[in-house]
Design goal:
Order of helices and strands: HHEEHEHHEEHHEEEEEEHEEH
Radius of gyration: 20 Å
Length: 355
């Protein structure tokens, strides 16, 4: 394992140059900087068995079926898996292709253009960086990202780079609409009225993170994204066809196999807390790959670190003498601050909120 002061030096070098991971990928480069190497705890976790699509499979839910059937399948998936894929969801394929193309356009912009957006101030409207957890985690991840808050206050379009501006603004409208439907279905799956989760401000914020995973010369020695669960209510993910996303289920890593036109929905920490463990916040990771770039767009229903005074806690209608609250109340900025400081170290920040 690389010495701590050596890691800090490399992190500072990356920040000072505002370098993207993908600029490290040149034809002559066969090894990557040591800050991207797996530390021992993560390397050992990597030894958990992986299951291909022929074994366990993440649930796929067809939104063209009757609503009662959708609710039942979402209930089962949210309780047992914490993740599911949706098809026939109503978002046009042209919109999905536009946002993926916009992500590629920005990440393959002239480096000097991208550097003007480089920041680790996560309260900014739009930021570009390589790893949000670069300093807090034991190793960097093999990806570049940019993010933008799309709600509660729509961004000034001028703050978004031209390369991805129209695509982000257009896609976010569909995400908010589909997200509203999914929160209704999740509410019904809990036995509550359709508007319950929305009335509790679960849609108060939307953060769009657009990831670019370059081809990796040594994919067996690093990860695209380390094991973690999300600091969100739910996350809506669009991925391309390269693959690499895996979820931890029954102590096995299970592939979330790409399906053309599908969207991946996963339960986040906030909803596990609010449902008092009825729904599961799934742990997941992204493998590095020699193929690429891999593109994904993760839309987090969360206000993250921006001001939000709403206090959240276990939903009272779900509690009883037999099922008392298991967690204390929280605000999203408070939770997110601790989550970011902790980094993607393979442990759940939810444990800090257990009663």
């Amino acid at each position: 394992m690389v010495a701590k002061n050596s890691i800090e030096f490399e992190c500072k070098s990356v920040d000072e140059t505002k370098a993207a991971v993908h600029v490290l990928v040149e034809p002559q480069i066969t090894e990557f900087p040591s800050i991207f190497g797996l530390p021992p705890p993560v390397a050992s976790d990597d030894k958990k068995p992986s299951v291909s699509a022929s074994g366990l499979a993440v649930p796929i839910i067809d939104f063209a079926m009757p609503r009662d059937g959708i609710v039942e399948k979402i209930k089962e998936a949210a309780e047992k898996w914490g993740i599911f894929q949706v098809i026939n969801h109503g978002v046009p394929s042209s919109v999905l292709e536009d946002i993926k193309d916009g992500v590629v356009r920005f990440h393959e912009e002239d480096p000097e253009v991208k550097k003007s957006y480089f920041s680790r101030d996560f309260a900014k409207t739009f930021i570009y960086h390589n790893n949000f957890e670069l300093y807090s985690s034991s190793a960097g991840n093999w990806r570049d990202s940019f993010g933008c808050y799309m709600a509660p206050n729509p961004p000034n379009p001028e703050k978004i780079p031209v390369a991805c501006r129209d695509a982000m603004l257009g896609y976010s409208k569909h995400v908010m609409s589909l997200g509203g439907l999914i929160f209704e279905l999740l509410s019904e799956a809990l036995g509550l009225r359709s508007e319950k989760l929305k009335s509790l401000d679960c849609m108060k914020g939307l953060l769009m993170l657009c990831h670019y995973y370059p081809p990796c010369p040594q994919p067996e020695l690093t990860l695209g994204t380390s094991k973690h669960s999300d600091n969100t209510f739910i996350t809506m993910l669009l991925q391309d066809q390269i693959g690499g996303l895996q979820v931890l289920h029954q102590d096995c890593w299970v592939d979330v196999s790409p399906i053309p036109g599908a969207l991946v929905i996963n339960i986040g920490d906030f909803l596990q807390l609010m449902t008092n463990d009825k729904f599961k916040s799934v742990e997941h990771r992204v493998l590095a790959n020699k193929a690429g770039p891999r593109i994904s767009v993760a839309c987090f229903f969360s206000s993250s670190v921006i001001p939000n005074s709403t206090v959240y806690g276990p939903i009272k209608e779900l509690l009883s003498e037999e099922n008392p609250p298991k967690y204390r109340e929280f605000t999203v900025p408070e939770y997110s601050k601790g989550y970011i400081e902790k980094g993607l170290d393979g442990t759940s920040h939810l444990l800090n909120y257990k009663i």
